Amino acid sequence: MERKVSTFDLKIGMHVSNLDRPWLDTPFLLQGFIIEDKDDIKALQQHCQYVFIDTEKGDEAKNYMDEKPSLPSSSYVEDFLDGGTKRVSYEEKQSAFHELPAAETALETATDKVARLMDNLKAGENLDITAVRNAVQPILESVIRNSDALLWVSEMKKKDAYTYSHSLDNCSLGIAFGRHLGLYKEDLRNLAMGLLLMDVGKVKVSDEILNKTGTLSVEEFKEMKNHVHYGVEMLRNTHGMNDTIINVVLTHHERFDGSGYPSGLKGKEVPVYGRIAAIIDCYTAMTGNSTYRVAMAPHKALQTIYNWRNKYFQDELVEQFLQCLGVYPTGSLVEMSSGEVGMIMSQNRVQRLKPKIMMLLDENKKPYEVSKIVDLTVDTMDASGLELTIISGLQPGAYGIDPTKVLDD
User: Fold this and answer.
1) Are residues 244 and 96 in the same domain?
2) Cα–Cα dist 68/247, whole Å
3) 167-170: long-range contacts (C-beta < 8 A, 24 or more apart)?
4) Pick from 175, 184, 346, 370: CA 20 to 30 A from residue 204's CA?
5) Are 317 and 310 in contact (CB under 8 A)?
6) Are 334 and 394 in contact (CB under 8 A)?
């Protein structure tokens, strides 16, 4: 049986049956051979990212890149998506406004812990699962109390370090979505830890590839995709790590139609948390700035994801994701029928087009000296006595608004 293996997992005694490139592009004389010594392994690592081994002709590997994930029990989520009821219905224990200080503290604490965690990994230290739990916990507690405040703060506090901010955005949004789906608290924690660690394998990918502004070459893209394997390998070597977390890292780039990687899993072959992670990772990537992409307006990102339902993402999960975030997600800029410009501060779970909005610019697009909060369920008229509604979503940074300055004001 032929299996795909990273060259970092090769051992003496394995039978190499194929490479990730033509044999003629390498110095190997035989098309298929037994690894006899460390020099063979070193040569393979110099020329290949991964190889295929024949497990019937040689020794097996400890880890495989084409393996299917184990499927820990999450049947109650599947039941809910099939029309069942939520196992847990969380109530807002705090208003978004009153939760803001705790949310801001939670995000700052998590950011510091994640930065320290990543620095330690880059320095060659082992992954510390306790540190991961400690990073996730304040975010988890804040989102359980109120599902809007931390999402709003995270939009205001975008960090320069894309990997850190992207990981934290994934984590925060994942807890909010899991809360919406009715996941138990322990399941929320596992999902959040998996989302936080999805890209941890990128610490083993060169900065030249990670920070490249142009199109990646075929070989560079292969190496970038290897971050999934690197991450899974790190998690498997971490004491106390469970399969749920590992599966999130392993499957977050799989797609519902089978077009993803590393294993081309299709439909419900992908664990439900992997399907959730794929949607969240795509949304946060589209709405965040990176070295190769300008941030997309949140409502446009949601429309894109909606258009990809039953192709890249499961239809039922996409529908729930849109219900969770609302028409205009928390933290997005909107233009009002009055001409004012505001930022969505919290959602109305019953009337999706009537959220709470922090007004930032007046009808002449001039900044308010003191921002005002409008609740469209109560503040239904503008200063002229006309109905006050949202007429459109805006691109991040529209009219020169800097989200990172909003809380400071």
Assistant:
1) yes
2) 9
3) 167/114, 167/195, 167/196, 167/197, 167/198, 167/199, 168/107, 168/110, 168/111, 168/114, 168/139, 168/196, 169/284, 169/288, 170/195, 170/196, 170/198, 170/277, 170/280, 170/281, 170/284
4) 175
5) no
6) yes
Domain count across the chain: 3
Task: Write out the residue range of the structural domain in which residue 24 sits.
Answer: 2-54
Query: How is residue 363 written in tokens?
Result: 């009808």
Phi-psi category of residue 339: left, alpha or beta, with phi > 0 → left and psi -120 to 50 → alpha:
left
What is the rounded distance in angstroms from the CA atom of residue 377 to the CA atom of residue 89?
23
Task: Let me know whether 340 and 313 are in one domain.
Answer: no
Closest to 333 measured CA to CA, from 279, 283, 296, 363: 296
Q: Is 119 exposed, middle or buried (0-12, 13-18, 19+ CB in 10 A)?
A: exposed
pTM here is: 0.84
Domain-embedded: residue 70: no
Residues 118 and 245 in one domain: yes
Q: Mean pLDDT by 10-residue block, N- to C-terminus, for the chain (409 residues)? A: 85 94 88 94 90 91 76 77 90 88 91 88 90 93 93 72 73 96 95 95 89 86 88 89 93 96 91 96 88 82 96 97 94 95 91 92 93 92 93 92 72
Distance CA 130, CA 379 (A): 46
